[in-house]
């Protein structure tokens, strides 16, 4: 990860052309999709969060999407202040928002604020964004797993999983704004009551139930039992309540296949953890959902 002084002087000059001379640069070390991230403190103006990538690649496309998508969620996504394109670097400056990561654990007082912001996102249109249906369609992740990592799917009926997962793209179709990567670190709760959602690198247009379904997995990760997580989502998030049993199961199976193959293709502890989480939830859904309360 590059620091402020590591950046080419032309890049630093371009940033300072927007905000003025930088007196302090605080590195931000979390995150994997960028080459530079810092809270910059200009000498004469308020702090700004700046994220940057080097090279024309997928991460640069993601950052460009984030810079434009943030305009679709005013008051939720941090405001974009500037973009800088210099020497194969793309830097985007965001309004620096004060806040802490949401606590998604059972009984957390943060959960009502989390529910409110997820409802607000699901009410927004998504003009110009690629559809969730198009993103999810065309790849049989379970068949790829059977070919690339047969040991991981030995206890699964791969053909049945492929059939279930194939329903997810159509069921996820819609015209609402979808963040598609909601988790605790993406939801920042400010001391003034404001709630912001950050890191809009994977946005899409889809059904309003999609983000709540992603959030259910993160609730399970935070310690909720799967049935409790779903019951909470049905009560607090009307779009999830409207998704029938087939829809949620198809999503769970699709995500388990996709996240597991991502972990196989690009191994790492975070990806392995997320893949296990998705497989465990899909397994629970296949076994418990047909007889669960309200399903």
Task: Provide an overview of this structure.
- The protein is α+β, with helices and mostly antiparallel strands.
- It folds into two domains: 4-95, Phosphorylase Kinase, domain 1 (2-Layer Sandwich), CATH 3.30.200; 100-291, Alpha-Beta Complex (Aminoglycoside 3'-phosphotransferase, Chain: A, domain 2), CATH 3.90.1200.
- 44% of the residues lie in helices and 16% in strands.
- The strands form three sheets. A five-stranded antiparallel sheet has the order 1-2-3-5-4, with helices on both faces. The protein has a three-stranded antiparallel sheet with strand order 6-8-9, with helices on one face.
- The protein is globular and about 60 Å long.
- The termini are far apart.
- The model is unreliable at 291-295 (pLDDT under 50).
Helix and strand arrangement:
Elements: H1 9-19, E1 22-27, E2 36-42, E3 48-54, H2 58-69, E4 80-86, E5 89-95, E6 100-101, H3 111-122, H4 132-136, H5 141-148, H6 158-165, H7 168-171, E7 176-178, E8 187-189, E9 195-197, E10 204-206, H8 210-221, H9 226-236, H10 238-242, H11 245-265, H12 269-288
Antiparallel strand pairs: 1-2, 2-3, 3-5, 4-5, 6-8, 7-10, 8-9
The major beta sheet can be summarized as:
5 strands, antiparallel
Query: What's the count of strands?
Result: 10
Oligomer: single chain
- Per CATH, which architecture of the largest domain? Alpha-Beta Complex
**Percentage of residues in strands:** 15-25%
In short:
By secondary structure, the chain is an alpha+beta fold. It has helices spanning 9-19, 58-69, 111-122, 132-136, 141-148, 158-165, 168-171, 210-221, 226-236, 238-242, 245-265, 269-288; strands at residues 22-27, 36-42, 48-54, 80-86, 89-95, 100-101, 176-178, 187-189, 195-197, 204-206. The chain folds into two domains: 4-95, Phosphorylase Kinase, domain 1 (2-Layer Sandwich); 100-291, Alpha-Beta Complex (Aminoglycoside 3'-phosphotransferase, Chain: A, domain 2), CATH 3.90.1200.10.
